[in-house]
Design a protein that fits this description.
- With 16 residues, this protein is mainly alpha-helical.
- It contains 2 helices and no strands.
- The longest helix is centred in the N-terminal third of the chain and has 5 residues.
- The N and C termini lie close together (10 Å).
- Its main location: secreted.
- Keywords: Disulfide bond, Secreted, Toxin.
- It comes from Conus araneosus (Cobweb cone).
Amino acid sequence: DCCIIAGCPFGCTICC
């Protein structure tokens, strides 16, 4: 999902 691709361990609403 977008969080993994963006390298962010939080929810997509927070990171993306």
